[in-house]
Design brief:
The chain has 3 helices and no strands. With about 45 residues, the chain is an all-alpha fold. It has one domain.
Length: about 45
């Protein structure tokens, strides 16, 4: 049996990255809220 989480940088960026967030209204709201809160990192790695 293999471990469940097999990280892939490319896939992670494609699904959770900045561009993906900016592509939907909900994602833009997320970024807006994080900016308003004063987050140092908008999109965690």
């Amino acid at each position: 049996m293999r471990t469940t989480y097999q990280p892939h940088k490319r896939r992670r960026r494609k699904t959770h990255g900045f561009l993906k967030k900016m592509s939907s209204p909900g994602g833009r709201n997320v970024i807006k809220r994080r900016r308003a809160k004063g987050r140092k990192v908008l999109i965690p790695k």
